[in-house]
Structures are given as C-alpha cells and as structure tokens.
Automatic annotation (TrEMBL):
<dbReference type="GO" id="GO:0016787">
    <property type="term" value="F:hydrolase activity"/>
</dbReference>
<dbReference type="Pfam" id="PF00857">
    <property type="entry name" value="Isochorismatase"/>
</dbReference>
<feature type="domain" description="Isochorismatase-like">
    <location>
        <begin position="9"/>
        <end position="155"/>
    </location>
</feature>
<keyword id="KW-0378">Hydrolase</keyword>
<protein>
    <submittedName>
        <fullName>Hydrolase</fullName>
    </submittedName>
</protein>
<dbReference type="InterPro" id="IPR050993">
    <property type="entry name" value="Isochorismatase_domain"/>
</dbReference>
<dbReference type="InterPro" id="IPR000868">
    <property type="entry name" value="Isochorismatase-like_dom"/>
</dbReference>
<dbReference type="InterPro" id="IPR036380">
    <property type="entry name" value="Isochorismatase-like_sf"/>
</dbReference>
C-alpha cells in the first residue's frame, strides 16, 4: 500500500520544547521532522500537531509550526491522541495517517495502536521519531510494525505523495528537498 496525499494526513505527535532536549539526537530529529512537515505541507498533505500537557511540557517547537502555517494544533492529557479524542474530524475522515514525533514508545506507540484499532492505515516515519533511549525507540518501532503499521522514511513519504516525476511540482520539490545538504 502506498501513501496517497488525497487520503492521508501527517500527524506530528508531541514534539514540544521542554521534552525535546531529553530525546536521542534532539537536534537531528527536529531537523528531520521540520523537513518532513515542510515537504508534506508543500505537497498538499494536511498536517496536525498534538501537544501532551502543554501547560507543563511547553508547546510544539516553533520551527515546526512555521513549516506548516495554519495547521491544526490539539492538546491532550492521554498519551494516545485517539484516547484523548482530540483529533480533528478532517484527520479522522481520511483512511491513512502518517505519524512522526515522540516519544516512540509512549505517545507515538499508543496513538498508532489505537489508530490501527480504528481501521486506519498507519505509516510511521522511522527517521522522524525519537525516545529518550535507543531500546525504547527500537522496541516501539518493532511493536508498531508487528501490530500492522508500515515503517517508512521521510523520502518515501515525499515520493509517494508526488507519485510521478517530470511535473513542475516534482521539480520544485526536488530542488527544495532532494538537492544539496539535507538533514541526516
């Protein structure tokens, strides 16, 4: 199954100012997520941000919000966005959800498992998730894959959303996201 930008939404889970410094490779993860969010926005994939207890953990990193102007931001207390019932109807109406964020083994995992239970096709962007420890990240990804989520990379998301080369959109996206120095 391929990601279809007409049927999918990008859900960015809890990449918040106060929690970000605690995760592995925080700076790299932030750069990769900013790339993904900007590319998704530019190709026309709707973006939704969630925030876990923003009063205590702060808000979404400003550079991420700037990458998708006008995107919905929802807050929650449950670890799962689904359990919190905070997701906008537009996201829930689409059958595919592309997920990135943190922490892989807590909020990302619980959200993904519940999206799968609700019949969604879920794609987890493996190079755009993080946890405080490598084992938690790895086991979280493994558990999501075992439950039926599809692991993808940022470039997979971009190329599947584009579907075809040789268009003006492909040329624009290629210049912006594929040529030159990119976050690793």
């Amino acid at each position: 199954m391929l990601i279809d930008k007409e049927r999918a939404t990008l859900l960015v889970v809890d990449i918040q100012e106060k929690l970000l410094p605690a995760v592995l490779d925080a700076e790299g993860m932030l750069a990769r997520c900013r790339w993904l969010i900007a590319a998704a926005h530019d190709v026309g994939l709707p973006v939704v941000f969630s925030e876990q207890y923003p009063q205590g953990l702060g808000h979404t990193a400003p550079s991420l919000l700037a990458a998708a102007p006008g995107a919905a931001v929802v807050s929650k207390l449950h670890f799962s966005c689904v359990a919190s019932q905070c997701l906008p109807p537009e996201l829930l109406q689409r059958p595919q959800v592309v997920v990135c964020g943190m922490e892989t083994h807590v909020c990302v995992l619980q959200t993904v498992l519940e999206l799968l239970t609700h019949g969604k096709q879920v794609f987890v962007v493996a190079d755009a998730v993080s946890s405080r420890s490598q084992i938690d990240r790895d086991v979280g990804l493994q558990r999501m894959r075992d439950a039926g989520a599809v692991l993808v990379t940022r470039e997979m998301v971009l190329f599947e959303a584009l579907q075809v080369s040789g268009t003006e959109l492909f040329r624009q996206m290629s210049k912006r996201y594929l040529v030159g120095e990119q976050p690793s």
